[in-house]
Amino acid sequence: MWGALLSVLRKRLMSVAGVAAAASAAAVFAAGPAAAQVFDVNTRASGSYLAFAGSMNFQSVGEHISTCDNSSDGAGVIGYWKVGSGGTVHPLYAGGGRGTCERVNASAGESSYVYLKVCIRNNGNVIEGTCSAWDSFPAGA
Q1: Per-residue pLDDT for 120 more than 70?
Q2: pLDDT tens digits for 96-108?
Q3: Based on CB atoms within 10 Å of each CB, which residue in 36, 43, 80, 94 is the most buried?
Q4: d(Cα 84, Cα 93) in Å, to the nearest integer?
């Protein structure tokens, strides 16, 4: 009697363990969304403007681009972006003050590159000495 009862109990425990192992394996090997990479460019110090007073970033999944004002210097931040080295240049201005950002969704193919450049803009004038260099990032990263 005890032998039969132990046999049934062992089978049930093995069945529960098998289901738990299968569920764990499915969770580990399930194809989830690709992890986004975030790439940044920052303004340079020039005159009274500090380095990193403005920034621009590109998030590879979803192709989100942001331009942000990081300083209380009274100036805004202008970012420029394009898809491909010869692509159309698009401006993205953040002029709402420190801690504000403007965002846009770009459309870029998985094998293309997104180019970013960011500068301080004060009273409508781009402060060239603050501009980052153009930098490129893979859209499908």
Answers
A1: yes
A2: 999 999 999 988 8
A3: 43
A4: 21
Q: CA 42 to CA 51: how far, in whole Å?
A: 7
Closest CA to 127 of 80, 73, 82, 77: 77
What is the CB-side half-sphere exposure of residue 136 using CA atoms within 13 A? 12
- Residue by residue, what is the 3-state secondary structure of 19-62? HHHHHHHHHHHCCCCCCCCEEEEECCCECCECCCCEEEEEECCC
Could you tell me the end-to-end alpha-carbon distance of the chain, in angstroms, rounded to an integer? Answer: 62
Amino acid at 89: V
Tokens matching residue 32: 């989830």
Q: Which of helix, strand or coil describes residue 58?
A: strand
110 close to 100: Cβ distance less than 8 angstroms: no
The answer to whether 75 touches 122, Cβ cutoff 8 Å, is yes
**Non-local CB neighbours of 68 within 8 Å, separated by 6+ positions:** 54, 55, 56, 57, 77, 94, 99, 100, 101
